[in-house]
Amino acid sequence: MKMRGFLFLIPCLAVLACGEAEDDLDLLRGAIRPDAPRFHTRANALASVRPIPPRLEVGFPNRDLSGVMLLEAERDGVQTWLTADGATITIEAGLLTSAKGFGSGLAASDVRQSAALIGAGQSGQVERFHSFLNSNDETELHAYRCEIRPVGDEDVFLQGLAVPTRKWQEDCFGVAEKFTNAYWLRKDTGRIVQSLQWTGDFLGNLFMKVVPE
Amino acid sequence: MTRLKSIRLRGGIALFMSLTPAGLGAQTVSNYGTPGLIDIPTAEMLEDGTLAFTAGYFDNTLRATMTFQMLPWVHGSFRYAYIADFDSAGGSTIFGGDRYDRSFDLHFRLREESRRAPAVTLGLRDFGGTGIYASEYLVATKVVRDRFKVTGGVGWGRLAGRGAFSNPLGAFADRFDTRTTEGAPETGQLDFGNWFSGDAALFGGVSWQYNDRLTLLVEYSSDAYTEEQANTSFEVNSPFNFGVQYKFKNGSQLTGSYMYGSTLGLSYTYFLDPHKNVAPGGQGPSPSPLLPVDAVALASWNLPGAGNGAVDGTKRRQAVLGRYLEEEGLRLVYLEERGNSVVVGIENGNYGQAAQAVGRTARLLANTQPPEVERFDIALVANGVPLSVVQVNRADLYELEHDLDGAWRSFTRARVSDSLPLVEGGFVDGAYPNLSYRFGPYLQASFFDPVSPLRYEVGAGLGLDYTIAPGLSLSGAIRQPLIGNLDNATRQSNSVLPRVRSDWTRYASESGLRVEHLTAEYLWRPGADLYARTSFGYLEQMFGGLSAELLWFPVDSRIAFGVEANYVKQRDFDVLFGFQDYSVATGHVSAYYDLPGDYHVQLDVGRYLAGDHGATVSVDREFNNGFKVGAFFTLTDVSFEEFGEGSFDKGIRLEIPVSWLTGRPTRNRLGQVIRPVLRDGGARLNVRNRLYGVTREARSQSLAQGWGRFLR
């Protein structure tokens, strides 16, 4: 193979290996080290806001991943929380409604019945609905029948301090899936301070715990 | 395996549920790479859309097969086989007396399995090609007591090698009574005349699924391997084959077998489902959440500032919007405020689905524009030419952001239309001229050279695009090969036609640093629903000249028509700036049809590079996520003899979005065309930026297919 011209090319490559080429290099890095941290511009901007926005400890127990999310926006009672690499979850009345950027595909949820029962501290049966963006870019709507019940009192440690809570469990059954969510509600305020909520088959449950301000 | 079925709920929402398949899903794949036991076929089908890659080996034979379940009831295969010493007995010394063989199969399910009756499939194996594996069969398979599968069939051709009897089809026509033994008259032709002719024989077998992983196989094969026995050391001592198959966690299969009483066999099959990418929903950053309108109103760029009031505010908003869009991989090229609406033009450099680019833009507009703006007109722009406009109401964005079925409800409220006229003053400062570039590795592969069945070249490539003004651009790309064996190919073309493609080995071996293309191009809109392109320069690796194209493609149409005319001259083998003597006027009239479902057909009729006249038919299965599997063939007035090996141009092609592999947004794609042989008949110019490809992503149909990502 002729190599003429290659010496000419090298300085060109050295000069030009930046700018848009970064996208490709980033892609390559992602392929080689998929778990390498990536910092998104919005997350950087949010992290520099003072006072520090509300934080949430999160983790995927199935994947042994954990981190902290910051509250990015709140509109009409729906909070959007952001990770350092730009993934988000939305929470309504303490219940997870979407998880985007993690690969779970959970696009939106109708959890109004669950939220009403848990908020009122009542047991009972509810229906919940999830929509998923599947691997073929199609929206799938899944329906579940769930049973909500208290399972006992537990202390949850928030920044080292024990907080008395009541643990509630939500067992849900769909046509081809079943899952269990757990919520720890503060006894004094009735607010969810910790939870384990299902994001879909791909990633399983998401652990969330509030960080006191 | 599971399949998705949908039922309708109140309000017309589709609820998807995973159900056990009702039909017969293939559990085993034979060493021919099609649903089967060990060496004989079954009537099973793969899951719709599945690609199965199989490598099968026994004695002196190695078969590599790709099978695609193109329809729920049809699968097709391409096979490349190596048979050691097959031609030695005849005294041939070509390729050391070994045989390299390419073959195509087609299988049609005639009947689904029911509770009492079996599935029935008709198979055409090696229906073109040299006919080594040529056989036809009718086969039936029935599941008995969940774990047993019983298969029986009748075969013709190769499958009538043992226990043959007179062809029962002879009762219908005399032509079924005898089968010529020479195969197709010329390699690559369809061998219609021999199909289902000559003697027939019965074959059959059973499989027993011991558990989820292990399946035992026994079969009686009517294939006597007559030619292999005569020409090689292969022996057939028994018609019975025995096998054990292990299924891995990822679904792939490994089958070990004892075949024909004389040899051990091994085959491995890997299944790939294009419906399923690496991460459902993707792993890239999420879209910005919609901010409350009050917060947007109070944003610094929307507050009255010092200086020249309204103009100053517009510029600040434009700067903020441009920056936000850039962070999303989108380029703001146009912005015009029209009363209570805003028109923006964006160039999508990041998202495989244009709908996602539109969704991201709409959100950023809502987060930057003052509250009195009620409507966003988002124009998808390519090289400064508007392709279509999506109109989104701001109120709908707020209402549907967290809706359970928000994406589709958004689609019903959005309006896709042909492009709005863009006024000169609306183009954003600095949008043009614009320089963009790409630098990265490339891989070029060539298959089926008997001396080296896989040839490749890896190198570094640099591409530059300089858009001088909307529609007018200069573009160039250079490549420097670094490693590979593509340039070692020694096969010389024996073509009797002008050598427009078959000299590819000379292009590979006589070039170093290559100018892949160097063009000036102008895209424009001559009228409603019309697009036009002219390109001039070094158009592709082997040809340079002038190319002009006109496309009619209404925004809400599944059908498009185009006409292209080119006058080109063949480039020198060093792929730099010189030309050879050969020149030709070439061009086509094209029709494109996006069929309901995942299918797309294209017909091109015209004059090809060698001056031959004819038509190309292309059929692709296009999955929503961008994965494509297709096949094409070209027939021209060049005779099969003149064409040479292969008889006519044909091939299969795969296109895989990089985002399918990584989960992260990118428009990059990996593509590979697999041709049994690259000859000169039916060869078409490879000009860049053909209009159908440029415009299609902005049509209603394509936007609808990707709209699931509007809120992603």
Provide structural commentary.
The complex is a heterodimer of chains A (213) and B (712). In chain A, 18% of the residues lie in helices and 49% in strands. With 213 residues, chain A is an alpha+beta fold. Chain A has one domain: YmcC-like (YmcC-like fold), CATH 2.40.360.10. Chain A has a twelve-stranded antiparallel beta sheet. In chain A, a hairpin with a 5-residue loop joins strand 7 (124-133) and strand 8. The termini of chain A are far apart. Chain B has 712 residues and is mainly beta. Chain B folds into three domains: 4-272, monomeric porin ompg (Porin, Beta Barrel), CATH 2.40.160.40; 293-431, GMP Synthetase, Chain A, domain 3, CATH 3.30.300; 498-701, no CATH class. Chain B contains eleven helices and 32 strands. In chain B, the strands form four sheets. In chain B, strands 20-21-22-23-24-25-26-27-28-29-30-31-32 form a 13-stranded antiparallel beta sheet. The longest helix of chain B is centred in the middle third of the chain and has 19 residues, at 309-327. Mean pLDDT of chain B is 90; it is low at 1-25. At the A-B interface, helix 1, helix 2, strand 2, strand 3 and strand 4 of A face strand 2, helix 6, strand 20, strand 22 and helix 9 of B.
